[in-house]
Amino acid sequence: MRNAHEIDFRIFGNDIQVLEIELDPNETVIAEAGAMVYMEEGIDFQTKMGDGSNPSQGFLGKLVSAGSRLITGESLFMTHFTHRGYGKSRVAFSAPYPGTILPLDLQQLNGNTLIAQKDAFLAAALGTKLAMHFNQKLGSGLFGGEGFILQRLSGDGLAFLHAGGTIVEKELNNETLRVDTGCVVAFEQGIDFSIQQAGGLKSMIFGGEGIFLATLRGTGKVWLQSMPVKKLIEALMPRGENAKKEGGFMSSFLE
Q1: What span is annotated as the signal peptide, if there is one (predicted)?
Q2: Which pLDDT tens digit goes with each residue over 83-115?
Q3: What is the C-alpha to C-alpha distance for residues 231 and 139, in angstroms, rounded to an integer?
Q4: What pLDDT does residue 194 have?
Q5: pLDDT (0 to 100) of residue 89
Q6: Rounded Cα gap, residues 12 and 127, in angstroms
Q7: What is the DSSP letter of 114?
Q8: Domains of the chain
Q9: Element (H, E) at 215
Q10: What contacts 10, CB < 8 A, 6 or more positions away?
């Protein structure tokens, strides 16, 4: 038996996907505020502080939980969608930018836990706990692009992440993988995440891969995205703005 609600789902689309959750009576799914696309008859929704994983949690605990979400860049509140009618009813969600929705069963992951970048969470079955995860490597916070504050999802139900572009799953067996810092979506508990310098001085300035790379080391699964939203914004930025940005960096670097 699972503690989390046992929800069913379908994913529609290719580049701009929609996640449809099918709920039985009294089943609940939690989602990022503003992610809902449509909901059928019988679905009731409430905006709450906290993920609802601990019903006996007091106001102070909920406030701390909501505050931690604010620190990770997420909304202060979460929306809880519950089927109050009969039969089955559906509610659908999508992310605010093009990409891929990744469904994961936390029960099948190491320690029933997933570490994800701060803006990756889309929705999850009620009973899933969301909390801050601090990367203990200071360099990850100073230079990692995504920062050293990540999200930790734990529980035994389904959780859904969103990533830009295409998602690539890699499984490490006591191995090391070096990745563009913005391309890391999530990884299993037991994977060590740190930031390292990207080669020599010439490669750092002119290589186009950035000054630092994320290093993932250990045993477990890693999920990567091909188009982080930061890169998408930069690609859509007028060429003059990009040149100004690069020139400013070069000037400050050479001073």
Answers
A1: none
A2: 999 999 999 999 888 899 999 999 999 999 999
A3: 21
A4: 87
A5: 97
A6: 25
A7: E
A8: 8-254 (3.60.160.10)
A9: strand 212-225
A10: 19, 20, 22
